[in-house]
Amino acid sequence: MDTYIEVDDEMFALLESYAGTETTDDRVVEFAGESLSVLDYTGLFYIEVPPLNDSTLNSWDGIDYWLDELGGFFSGDILPADLPEDFDPYDDNFVSPSVVFGSTENFKKAVFEKLGERIKEGNAGVAFVTVTNGGRKLDLVYDNLDDWAFDFNDRVKVFEGDEYTEENGYYDL
Fold first, then answer.
1. What Rg value do the Cα atoms of the chain yield, rounded?
2. Other CB atoms within 10 A of residue 159 CB
3. Phi, psi (degrees; rounded to nearest 5) at 139
4. Residue 11's CB: how many other CB atoms inside 10 A?
5. Sign of torsion over alpha carbons 142, 146, 148, 149
6. CB 3.0–4.6 Å: which of 26, 42, 93, 159 could bond 139 by disulfide?
7. Which has more confidence, 120 or 97?
8. Is 35 strand, coil or helix?
9. Per residue in 34-70, pLDDT tens?
10. Which pTM does this prediction carry?
11. pLDDT reported for residue 88
12. Is 5 exposed, middle or buried (0-12, 13-18, 19+ CB in 10 A)?
């Protein structure tokens, strides 16, 4: 199956004007909706990660707040398996998250492992359609196909190719 669409100069110029951004331009959104039949998957997942710093690991409440912003987790979801069975993060006699995880990187790794399990259970990840014009190409990026399936989406991203980075929220889980 082809995962690209050849477009005329006018449409490509319109798409190119939004390269590297997300747009709500009705013409682009309508075109993206019409292009869904040829989409493919990047193998990546889009995740909006809240800011994480050392102070987040000072308390279990801080952890829970951060996890909730990420998307419906709580601290019990990501506790390491080697903790005692009776470990209760809210019992003052137990240790802080900074001791349990050791660093923000270790904490983030634990979260992303669990997040990867959950996402792969019910989400196919980020989809795209490559739009070409002569030798030029751009990707229309669909971060949330559920929104498109239910006609809730009113925006689409247009990428030139190098924007699929963790800094931009794209993760290989």
1. 20
2. 22
3. -110, 135
4. 16
5. positive
6. 159
7. 97
8. coil
9. 998 898 888 888 888 888 999 999 988 889 889 888 8
10. 0.72
11. 82
12. middle
